[in-house]
Amino acid sequence: MTVAGRVRRESVRMQAAELFEQEVKPPEVARRLRVSLKSAYQWHQLWREGGVGALASRGPSGSRCRLSPRCLEKLAAYLEQGPAAHGWVEDQVWTAARVAMLIGRKFHVSYSVSGATRLMHRLGFSPQVPARRVAERDEQAVTAWKEATWAEVKGPGRPAGATSASRTKQASPADRPEAGPGDDADTPRS
Q1: Quick check: 19 pLDDT over 70?
Q2: What are phi and psi of 176, to 5 degrees?
Q3: Which of 73, 131, 146, 157: CA 20 to 30 A from 111?
Q4: How much of the chain, in percent, has pLDDT values that exceed 90?
Q5: Reduced to 3 states, what is the DSSP secondary structure of residue 156?
Q6: Residues 30-41: tens digit of each pLDDT
């Protein structure tokens, strides 16, 4: 749930508490606040047992981040440096597995690959998937094939600007044929 969604939910719960204090029944609270009847009854039960405080948010659900804000800043700086600065020189991509390993090395905290992915997104990064190539791949042979064989197979293509980019563009009346095969020239078009 987004932060805005949590704030709205909190506000609605507080409105429900005010209505319960005015002795408004849960079905009417559900109707007024446009929430499910089940939610209204659950909130009413919580309100009866613990008052307004019982309806207050306890923060976002889920497990707490195991890295401090300072460690998150350091991790973002490490990611900015690139994989080569941390020992991955074969390609310049941050995979989630590499980030999980980096977190373990630098902060001595274990993260799963999916947890590292969520953490990367939180920091504004996205994990990359490296291109998998066969170890026996011959780059010179691939290049030669692309230049010779692919050029023959591909063909010249369409000249630039020969077609319209819009499929819904209507032809002008001047471009329309007067009569086509099967058309009766004596009957007007509708």
Answers
A1: yes
A2: -80, 140
A3: 131
A4: 41
A5: coil
A6: 999 999 999 999
